Amino acid sequence: MTMKQNYSILFTTLSMAFVFLLSSCVSTTTIKSVPPGADVYVDGYKVGTTPYKYEDEKIAFSRTNLDIILEGYEPVYSYLVRDEEIDVGPLIGGFFFWPVWLWTMKYHPTHTFELVPLSGSPDSPAIKDKEIQFDDATIQKLNLLKESLDKGTISQEEYDALRKKTLGLRE
């Protein structure tokens, strides 16, 4: 092999490694809401509705303002911080090209926000609970559900879904 071919192979290899390292700089998360269909605002700009796939190339520990708004529900004002998981690609790549270490952290794959109905609205759980007549069988079912939750045999999400079903509430 000639010296020119060696440099060509070296340049190609380094170029591919550089492209790989830079592609590792993107972090993605899916923003969900319960119920779905809420407007998503990132840094004050409407970007879509839930579920929404958000991605950026910000450096580790950067903060992004996030607002989730749905008519009839309390708005959620939150933020994403790019410090939730380690991204192995930039971590390894940083040993070869140190600035890549700025992207060693990424977001969790999903962020779910449970929206709370505005008080006084027909969907408010407080109002619905008052309209329901509780009989002994319903109370017994609710107590069993609570015991299962306390023992850890069902998750909080399963408990909430079964509680709503038992009470006849919409999901």
What are the key terms here?
171 residues, alpha+beta, three-stranded mixed β-sheet, 36% helix
Structural overview:
The protein is an alpha+beta fold and 171 residues long. The chain folds into two domains: 3-114, no CATH class; 132-167, no CATH class. Helix content is 36%, strand content 26%. The protein is built from five helices and nine strands. The protein has a four-stranded antiparallel β-sheet, with no helix packed on it. The longest helix has 21 residues, at 3-23. The termini are far apart. 14% of the residues are buried. Residues 126-132 have low confidence and may be disordered.
Based on DSSP secondary structure assignment, what is the total number of beta strands? 9
Main β-sheet, spatial strand arrangement: 3-2-5-6
Q: What's the rounded overall pLDDT mean?
A: 75
The SSE string, one letter per element, is HEEEEEEEHEEHHH
Sketch the major β-sheet.
4 strands, antiparallel
Strand content: 25-35%
